[in-house]
Amino acid sequence: MYTYPEKEKIAVVNRYLNGETISKISQSTKISRTTIYAWIKEYNNTFHNGKAPNFRYLHDLQQKCERQQKIIEILQRSPCAPSAPLSKRYEVIKVLSAEYSVNILCEALNVAKGSYYNHLLRNKNGATKVAKKQSEMTPIIEQIFHENNEIFGSSKIYAILKDRGYAISEATVAKIMHNNGLFSIRACAKTLYKQQLERKNNILQQQFHVSHPNEVWVSDVTYFSVFNRMYYICVVLDLYARKVIAYKISRHNSTQLTKASIKIAYEKRNPTEKLLFHSDQGSNYTSNEFRKYLRSIHITQSFSNPGMPYDNSVMESFFGSFKREALYRYRFKTEKDFFESIETYINFYNNKRPHSILMNQTPDKFEANYFNKYKENSKPRTEQ
């Protein structure tokens, strides 16, 4: 019985690993398929301790990895993402098709291969003529659009063009308008109105000195970890006396937290004049639910500019003092201890802690002085 050299066995197995079928290898080497199967099994057992992987599977996996590497290269070189307009992706495929197959380019840029070939066919059969026609009509359509105060959409502009004798379809007018950003204000008027309502203006503009209580309230949320659990604390300050007028603690930093806090403040203070509420642009202050609630109680909202903590520096300063003078000083044994320490500090802050901005008076005293003066000034004067 003939014994094949080890070198020949390895060469045959490598050919199989490189993608050749066993039938083809058998025909070219005159080695039986049974023998080749036995060699493949032998090498599987030799290199993998009896746990034989499927060598064909490994080969396929290698090919997939190489294909994915090519897709990564294409995406790195492409000036547009797979979500870009189809026309831009067509252009990229056309440029890179000299280096990569259309098949892998289409896969990388999420384009159906049939769609790309149809695109090439359309361009070959007269797209140049269509493009020339659209180029000629674009300035005419733009002129009509602007002459009519940007009110007319494609249907009305099409009617005007038809009346003037231009041979063009309404679909082509709509396409030209869309490609050139000519959108009727009728279509977006409601959207623009809503955007105006939802605009996040900084009305306060760091004007932290106000003339009376309930003129401006400021708010923010801080967090503190106790027993490996995160707690969120929302505080509302009246800017006039830097007084804490409401606070709420929650395990979740949500709209419900901020809404509950402002509700406590509103019910406690019952403001009768125009009130401004200032905060950062956190989602719990900008949510539709929270903004709708403020509008329902006639409170105007003001927002810090993004990345500008100084726009709400009064709240930043309060939380700094709050943590240094209370939270960082104690090791809380229970959740109840933690909650009580917050209440104790806020009572201390309002009633006993002098504030330099308030001429070293406490928030409670500074606010009480205002109301006492207000009462005195409101009393009718007796004639002497």
Give your account of this protein's structure:
The structure is a single chain. The chain has helices at residues 6-17, 22-29, 33-47, 55-77, 86-96, 102-108, 113-147, 154-163, 170-179, 185-198, 255-269, 283-286, 288-296, 313-325, 335-351, 363-378; strands spanning 216-226, 229-238, 243-250, 275-279, 299-303. The protein has 16 helices and five strands. Helix 1 crosses helix 3 (33-47) and helix 8 (154-163) crosses helix 9. Strand 1 (216-226) and strand 2 form a beta hairpin. The chain has a five-stranded mixed β-sheet with strand order 3-2-1-4-5. 57% of the residues lie in helices and 10% in strands. By secondary structure, the protein is of the alpha/beta class. The chain folds into four domains: 6-53, Arc Repressor Mutant, subunit A, CATH 1.10.10; 66-120; 133-196, Arc Repressor Mutant, subunit A, CATH 1.10.10; 216-376, Ribonuclease H-like superfamily/Ribonuclease H (Nucleotidyltransferase, domain 5, 2-Layer Sandwich). The termini are far apart.
Shape: flat
Helix percentage range: 55-70%
Name of the CATH first level of the largest domain: Alpha Beta
Structural class: alpha/beta
Please work out how many helical segments DSSP would assign. 16
Write down the domain tally: 4
Distance between the termini: 141 Å
Going by CATH, the homologous superfamily of the largest domain would be Ribonuclease H-like superfamily/Ribonuclease H
The largest sheet, given as strand count, sense and whether it forms a barrel, is: 5 strands, mixed
The rounded Rg comes to 37 Å
Q: So, CATH architecture of the largest domain? A: 2-Layer Sandwich
* DSSP, total strands: 5
Biggest sheet strand line-up: 3-2-1-4-5
Proportion of beta-strand residues: 5-15%
The arrangement of helices and strands along the chain is: HHHHHHHHHHEEEHEHHEHHH
- Here the CATH topology of the largest domain equals Nucleotidyltransferase, domain 5
